[in-house]
Amino acid sequence: MREQVIREYVRLPNARGALSAELCYPLARTTFACLIANPHPHMGGRMSNNVVTHLAASLAAGGAVTLRFDYAGVGNSDGPPVDVAASMAAFWKTGRAPEDPLMIEDAQAALDWLRRNRPLPLVLTGYSFGAYAVTQLTYEEPDAFILISPTIAQHDFGAFTRCAVPKLVIGGEGDFATPDGTFESWAAALTEPKTVRRVVGGNHFFRDRERDIADACLAFIRRVLADGVDLACP
Amino acid sequence: MRRVTPSDGYILVTGATGFLGHYVLAELLGRHRSCIALLRPPIEHARERLAALLHEIAIDHDEYVASGALTLVEGDITGAPPDIRDLPVRSILHIAASTSFAPTADGDPARTNVDGTENVLRWADAWGVSEFHLISTAYVCGETEGTVREAAHTVQPRFHNHYERSKWEAERLCMRWANDNGRRLTVYRPSIIVGDFHTGRATRFGGIYLSARATEMLHRIHIDSPDHVRRALSVRIAGRADGRQNIVPVDYVARFIGCVAGDPAHQNRVYHLVHPDAPTNGEIKEVFEHYFKIGGGRFVEPEHLRDDDLNELERQFHDATASIRHYLQDTPAFDRRHAEEIERTEAIVCPHYAAADVGRLIRHAQAAGWGRRRQQKSRNTSECAEYFESFLPTRMAESHVAETTAVTATIRFVIEDEPNGEWTCFFNSGVLTNVRRGPNGIAEDFGYRTNRDVFWEATTGRTHPQEFFLTGKAEVFGDVERALKMAMILHAFANEFPCHIHDLEHRAEESCANK
Q1: Which residue of chain B is at minimal alpha-carbon distance from A51?
Q2: Which CATH number fits the domain that encloses residue B445?
Q3: Which domains does chain A show, CATH number per domain?
Q4: How many A/B residue pairs have CB atoms within 8 Å?
């Protein structure tokens, strides 16, 4: 039986005001912290995303304090509303928007807040564009990375391939952001220790597969934290 | 059936697929008049609609076409003259009209009623037609006191709405045209046209139907309330109980027009096709309340009812009937001596309305879903069609979002529970260059598949598109990445130009009636 969790809405200060965020943690002792970055706002990314919300609650039930947030201008976060029209021309062609660096700053602000307020072993988790965002954060070294549907066709994950931190990468079968063949070869090139998961029928949205994703993430984290290194192989 | 020869001369009928139009056409065909029906392009869709409408009143469209009594030509009253080849047009019966009370984005009602009429008069000149019949409205009299004459209103009155003004201007144009020697102009001014007297059948549900629908709304709100509560609702209505709702049945109006249009001796006059003994507002209210098993509505002088003093029920009722409110308050008396002459000589009777007759109108309207069912069945007049083929091209041209994003893509939309509900939109550098309906061989870059409910939720801009995809309410196909990006653009567009289904209901119906 999963543990009951507490949800706490928080405001995270950043350079453009404050970000709207939710902290989720168990009634019992927390053993690790997990930052979860969501997809790109230009693709509808919000902290209310199905994968993000499910993951936040499931990991919290497994002993984590999780933090998810909305980028500036999204939901109740301060900042001008995301102007899809203004930056969609570039995003349409490249999958990258001029605001991308600002969103990474937002993720950095969230991470800084989490480190200050919950100094625990840290797992950086990102979904879609959020996967790219968490690999760009400045931090000495997290205890683990979890990248779900990383946007490898749109963003440069070159530095991450050399990262020696334990990592779980999850790709959905038929995912436009991580085309099947590209994902396999990219994952194969990642530095160990690594765990690679393919979710059959997951495409990019993982509708009705959220539980599978969360279970895989929790199992991975437990192994990493228990052993100091992830020994699981795909 | 008698074979009609071209030498009889044809009556060109505009607006034949409209509510009044198809009744008039049936009447003319029944009187062995040879008719040319002007149908809005694409003619295949209009033909299908006309055939269905005529079939509903037991007229076999195919038979009349085969016999040569009915010829269909494609054209738009605001466009170039239709290709009538060598068919001799004897007269023009101009029924097509927009009944929008307020100005629309595409310029109606003036565009159709004034510009369209002027254009059709030019066709008459070009074809040498000297007989013209205009379907106007009794309410070209505007705000008036005393009895309204069955003659030209040479002095422009104050109007209640843009519709009245446009019809008055159309009359003026026609009367100017008729000043030339040898031209005959007949103007028919019906009051509020309602369903067939014997069956209640109608295809348009404005006017008095809005009051009925508002009463039905009160009924729904209190559907679970005890009877004593339902019968004592506190709803004040701005208007006069002894004022009259001048309703006339469509079959009466059609019969009258069919008779006059076929006999030059009756022409060159103005006719008030109004009821000589129309039911009062109070009588109609009683019928509506009885039908919907509620009570408590009462008329009050308009000046005693302030907008900021309405209770919730009153507010909802008044919102639903706002466009016709003045017809409850201002009920002119009409001279109808010209009409009575025809009624006497041709044995035409404008029937008296008893409570059961009004009830029949409501029963049919309810059965027809207040017009929604027909629109859903129709291939070319649904709200979805209006959205893709009219609203979207118009608004996209004005859209900041479209201009800024400058997208080039071919996008297919599939509305699964919409008949023939498939549209392909071609965007080139942010410009919507073309919209094509129906399945076709065009290769789309990507597309969306959903149902009507979700589609109309999306067009309001209230719900984030991601919600639709994540909950399975909508599916994307083709290039998913671009589809998701485009969904965001369309969402931004929907926020810029939100569109509710009821915004287009009226226009969808007008489209079938007018064009």
Answers
A1: B470
A2: 3.30.1050.10
A3: 5-227 (3.40.50.1820)
A4: 60
Closest CB from A45, A49, A85 relative to B401:
A85
**B304 and B219 fall within a common domain:** yes
**pLDDT averaged over every residue in chain A:** 88
Rounded Cα distance between B107 and B122, Å, is: 20
Same domain, B221 and B155: no
Contact A207 B406 (CB under 8 A): no
Q: Is residue B225 part of a domain?
A: yes
Asked if the structure places residue B458 within a domain, the reply is yes
Measured torsion, CA atoms of residues B76, B77, B81, B82, in degrees rounded to the nearest 10: 40
Domain contains B446: yes
CB neighbour list of residue A31: distance below 8 Å, 6 or more residues apart: A63, A64, A120, A121, A225
For tokens 């000495």, the residue is: A140
pLDDT value at residue B4: 44
Domain that holds residue B492: 383-507
| Secondary structure element (H or E) that encloses residue B229, with its range | helix B227-230
Q: Which helix (H) or strand (E) holds B75?
A: none
Q: How confident is the model at residue B433 (pLDDT cuts 50, 70, 90)?
A: confident
Tell whether B158 and B185 lie within a shared domain: yes
Instruction: Give chain B's domain count.
Output: 3
Residue B508, helix vs strand vs coil: helix
Same domain, B318 and B402: no
As a whole number of angstroms, the distance between CA B160 and CA B145 comes to 14
* Residue B404 and residue B288 share a domain: no
Helices vs. strands in chain A: H and E counts, helices first = 7, 8
| Domain end point (choices B309, B338, B370) | B370
Which of B484, B493, B495, B497 is the mutation pick for testing A, counting most A CBs within 10 A? B484
Residues B344-398 pLDDT 10s: 999 999 999 999 899 999 988 887 778 765 554 544 457 888 899 889 988 888 8
Block residue for tokens 């440069």: A156
Judge if B47 and B119 occupy the same domain.
yes
In a domain, B342, yes or no: no
Structure tokens belonging to residue B265: 């001796």
Sign of the torsion formed by the C-alpha atoms of B432, B434, B436 and B442: negative
Contacts of A84 in chain B (CB under 8 A): 401, 405, 488-489, 491-492
Look up the CATH number of the domain holding residue B15: 3.40.50.720
* Band of residue B3 on the pLDDT scale cut at 50, 70, 90: very low
CB < 8 Å to B407, chain A: 88-89, 92
Residue A137 has pLDDT above 80, yes or no: yes
Provide the strand spans (E) within B370-492. 409-415, 422-428, 431-437, 446-450, 475-478
Q: Do B425 and B444 meet the contact criterion of CB atoms below 8 Å apart?
A: no
Across residues B246-263, what is the average pLDDT? 95
Residue B494 and residue B359 share a domain: no
Residues of B in contact with A45 (CB under 8 A): 466
Residue type for position B210: L
Question: pLDDT-derived band of residue A2, with 50, 70 and 90 as boundaries?
Answer: low
Q: What percent of chain B has pLDDT over 70?
A: 94
Identify whether residues B473 and B358 lie together within a single domain: no
Radius of gyration of chain A (CA): 16
pLDDT in tens, A73-94: 998 999 887 777 777 777 777 7
Q: Which amino acid is at A118?
A: R
Asked if B405 and A92 come within 8 Å (Cβ–Cβ), the reply is yes
Q: Do A46 and B465 make contact, defined as CB atoms within 8 angstroms?
A: no
In tens, the pLDDT along A164-200 reads: 999 999 999 888 777 778 899 999 999 999 999 988 8
Comparing alpha-carbon positions, the chain A residue that sits nearest to B407 is A89
Query: What pLDDT, on the 0 to 100 scale, is given for residue B2?
Result: 44
